[in-house]
Amino acid sequence: MATAGKVIKCRAAVAWEPTAPLMMEEIEVAPSQEGEIQIKVVATGVCHTDLYHLFEGKDKCGFPSVLGHEGAGVVESVGPGVTDFKPGDKAIPLFLSQCGECKFCKCPKTNLCDRNNRTIFHIIFHPLAFFGNVSFSLWQTVINQIAVAKIDDDAPLDRVCLLGCSISTGYGAAVNTAGVIPGSVCAVFGLGAVGLAAVMGCKNAGASHIFAVDINEQIFEKAKIFGATDFLNPKAYNKPISEVLSEMTSGGVDFSLECVGNTEVMRTALESCVKVWGVCVLVGWTNVKDISARPIQLISGKTWKRSLFGGNQVLKARTLLQNWLIDYMTGKIKLDEFITHKMSLEQVNNAVNLMKTGQWNIFSLTSFCRIL
Predict the structure, then answer these.
(1) Which pLDDT value is given to residue 116?
(2) Residues 93 and 147: beta-carbon distance below 8 Å
(3) Is residue 170 a contact partner of residue 123, using CB atoms and an 8 Å limit?
(4) Coil, strand, or helix at residue 113?
(5) If we measure between CA atoms, which residue out of 200, 191, 190, 140 comes closest to residue 324?
(6) pTM greater than 0.90
């Protein structure tokens, strides 16, 4: 197309410093280099990890930056050596690569990849940092093809963009990392989009009981849609919620998934598991505090796992997302039910504030879509 090999100027929401509102600025997007593609963004979601970076992490070294990592769009142009994409293809950029060549991609034990994305943005000759794959822009980042999943032409971009992070992360944590089995008892801590997707994963895996745990009871009705059977508000009890779960399940749940990104909740999720075979999966993201647990919790036979982007060891990032897309198109995975608002990019601060204060129906991590 006409933009191939050229620097593009476009509008983007720039984070200049921690806790400050995002500012709409004109930025320069570098042309595609070897193996890279350029994507025009059509829709994006707002993820709580963006909120963490902007308001909670307060990493001054990461500013100024353009946030966003849950986008979908159309390939505008491709650089030399690109074989997997052509202009006009629909695509979802990923924060996790799949090069197929590094030791992690070749290992059947992980879906991690050792190769990082290259993102080149400038604003008035000032280099911009990046977090994720930069979807808060009227043009997507120039990104290597190893970190992009091609999707069907008939896929609705304002829905499938959520597969770029939240839905894949929560759903995959349940069906892949935890390995929920039919007839099992599960508990999901935190009912943002990741947590609700985890509930959906437990349901589709055949769990008989799914405890939805959150301090925001307004989200419980939403959780029913995705398969939750029981609902607990930790603030409603005068004892630790792990003890409540233990009493209600004769010793603890078979699988627990922490989808908050809070180290205290992570420990609670572990303590809520039954001994010997209980599995706890850490799904929420945080890097603020260290995590601790009593050794007896693990010595008794419980398993503590982490999950990143669906956690499938055999299916890597790009392949995994394409499978989730098939599941959505065939009705196995819900996406439409996660959308609570649609806004323009210029309203991004309103979207961030709604997510920050928990005013949206989906609490903590929610869906923010825009159509250009």
Answers:
(1) 64
(2) yes
(3) no
(4) coil
(5) 200
(6) no
Residue 334 makes CB contacts below 8 A (sequence gap 6+) with: 200, 225, 226, 328
Lookup: tokens for 229: 């059977």
Number of Cβ within a 10 Å radius of residue 178: 28
CA–CA gap between residue 222 and residue 242 (Å, rounded): 23
**Quick check: helix, strand or coil at residue 72?**
strand
Percent of the chain with pLDDT over 70: 82
| DSSP classification of residue 177 | I
We find that the CATH architecture of domain 170-306 is 3-Layer(aba) Sandwich (3.40)
Q: How far is CA 212 from the centre of its chain?
A: 19
Per-residue model confidence (pLDDT) at position 130 = 54
pLDDT single digits (tens) 263-319:
899 999 999 999 999 999 999 877 667 777 787 777 888 998 888 777 765 556 677
| Sequential DSSP letters for 191-206 | -SHHHHHHHHHHHHTT
Give the CATH superfamily of 8-165+312-369.
Answer: Medium-chain alcohol dehydrogenases, catalytic domain (3.90.180.10)
Cα–Cα distance, 146 to 93 (Å, whole number): 9
Residue range 226-244, pLDDT digits in tens = 999 999 999 999 999 999 9
